[in-house]
Amino acid sequence: MTKIVLFAGGLGTRLGEETVLKPKPMVEIGGLPILCHIMQGYAAYGFKEFIVALGYKAEVIKQYFLNYVYLQNDFSIHMSSSAVEVSKRPERDWIVHLVDTGLHSMTGGRLYRLRDQLNKETFMVTYGDGVSDVDMTRLMDFHRSHGRLATLTLVRPRARFGTVDLLGDQVVRFKEKLDTESWINGGFFVFEPGVLDYLSSDEEVLESDVLTRLAEDGQLMAYRHTGFWECMDTMRDKQHLESLWASGNVPWKTSRIAGDQNAEKERCL
User: Fold this and answer.
1) Domain annotation for the chain: domains and CATH numbers
2) Measured between alpha carbons, how far is residue 60 from residues 27, 29, 56, 269 in Å?
3) Cβ(75)–Cβ(83) below 8 Å
4) Residues 6+ positions from 179 with CB-CB distance below 8 Å
5) Can you state the angle between helices 34-43 and 261-268, rounded to 10 degrees?
6) Which positions ≥6 away from 42 have C-beta within 8 Å?
7) Cα–Cα nearest to 157, from 183, 126, 137, 187
């Protein structure tokens, strides 16, 4: 089974009060941790084994998954024996590995600490703060087609400022705007185990160290994604994602994910 590594150990300082008591991937959009939204995106395409690379506030994420079944269901406690009976088992058939990869490890360093779990087959990697409607099956097919060690997903970011349509001096509507001039790293990677040979310490940064060396060796290919992508880097970003959720227009919720938003929430809590 293809494993998905989720970076979930950063400090997330630009989200202010949101990350004082919890790590950034546990910040909620529509009442759900953004980490859950991301995992759901992979699971919709059949990728259901996750390695969550923990660091800052690791215990919060551990407690969430440890108590997942009880948070989702009614249950009974037999006080004399401490036995617990859950009303029904969760619908999720995911496997979630929770691994502490160090408080101060960089992104490459987190992969370095996971090397013994990733050295046998192709694996995927992403950050714990970005949602997208990337077709994971097509991404994997693209990766397998070129035969190189690594694939990164390129996206066109939403411009910081939108545009205004005018009729004379009357404002007709506001429009979101994409930065159509540039491609950036969208954070959805596919790697072969050979990428692990490019890692050597906790201090290595995936983006500036490892990917640079892969590119120099001709081992890095780009998958261009022209659909939805958004990174929750600031409170402004969080508010934008919340507004999309509230409107019912949830671009990262692929058509493969059945059910309405309320049903989704019940299954994911």
Assistant:
1) 3-268 (3.90.550.10)
2) 11, 17, 9, 14
3) no
4) 156, 157, 158, 159
5) 100
6) 4, 48, 50, 124, 136
7) 183
Reported as a single tens digit per residue, the pLDDT across 228-263 is 999 998 888 999 999 999 999 899 986 554 443 443
pLDDT, position 22 = 87
Q: Return averaged pLDDT per consecutive 10 residues of the chain, 269 residues in all.
A: 93 71 91 94 96 96 89 85 80 90 95 95 96 96 96 84 59 58 89 96 93 94 94 90 92 60 38
Q: Is beta strand 32-33 parallel, antiparallel or unpaired with respect to 49-54?
A: unpaired
Specify burial of residue 83 (Cβ count, 10 A radius: 0-12, 13-18, 19+).
exposed
What tokens were used for 69? Answer: 């079944």
Please provide the DSSP assignment of 205-257 as one string: -IIIIIHHHHHHTT-EEEEEE-S-EEE--SHHHHHHHHHHHHHT--TTS-TTS
Helix extents (H) in the chain? 34-43, 58-66, 68-72, 107-113, 115-118, 136-146, 211-216, 235-247, 261-268
Q: Name which of 107, 198, 183, 176 is nearest 152 in CA terms.
A: 183
User: Are the C-beta atoms of 61 and 42 separated by less than 8 Å?
Assistant: no
pLDDT at site 30: 92
